[in-house]
Amino acid sequence: VQLQASGGGSVQTGGSLRLSCTTSGSIVGLYYMAWYRQAPGKERELVARFTTDDRIEYADPVKGRFAISSDNAKNTAYLQMDSLKSEDSAVYYCYADHKITRRQFWGQGTLSPFSS
Fold first, then answer.
1. pLDDT by residue (tens digit) across 78-98?
2. Could you read off the pLDDT of 53-73 as tens digits, one per residue?
3. Residue 8: count of CB within 10 angstroms of its CB
C-alpha cells in the first residue's frame, strides 16, 4: 500500500488544519492507522492512533485539540487539528499497520509550520 498524506500548510496559532492520508491500493479499514510528527531536532513521536483493541489514543500534548478519524468509503484517514500551538509545528507522517500481516507502512511527511 502507498500512503499519500496531504493537507499540511501554514496556519496561525489558534487555527485549524485537517490532514488526510489516503491508502492507495488498499482499504483503509484493513489497517490500524496513526499519525506521527517530527519537529526539527526532535525524535518522531506518536500523535494519535487507532489501537488494536478498537480504541483511540492521543499523545498528551494534543488531547482535546486533535481528532483522528477514518472514512472507509474514501480509504482515507484524517487528523483534525484545532487550537494549534507553535509547538505543534512539525512534519506529520501517516502510518499504517496491517491488521493481519502486521506489515507497517509510512507515508511521506506533510509539513505543517505554524506562525504566531
1. 999 999 998 999 999 999 999
2. 989 999 999 999 999 999 999
3. 19
* Spatial separation of the C-alpha atoms in residues 26 and 17, rounded to whole Å: 25
As a whole number of angstroms, the distance between CA 53 and CA 41 comes to: 33
How distant, in Å, are the alpha carbons of 10, 23, 115 from that of 75? 25, 6, 31
Q: What is the 3-state secondary structure (H, E, C) of the chain?
A: CEEEEECCCCEECCCCEEEEEEEECCCHHHEEEEEEEECCCCCCEEEEEECCCCCEEECHHHCCCEEEEEEHHHCEEEEEECCCCHHHCEEEEEEEEECCCCCEEECCCEEECEEC
Strands 56-58 and 45-50: antiparallel
Residues in the chain: 116
Cell numbers standing for residue 18 = 485537517
How large is the C-alpha radius of gyration of the chain? 13
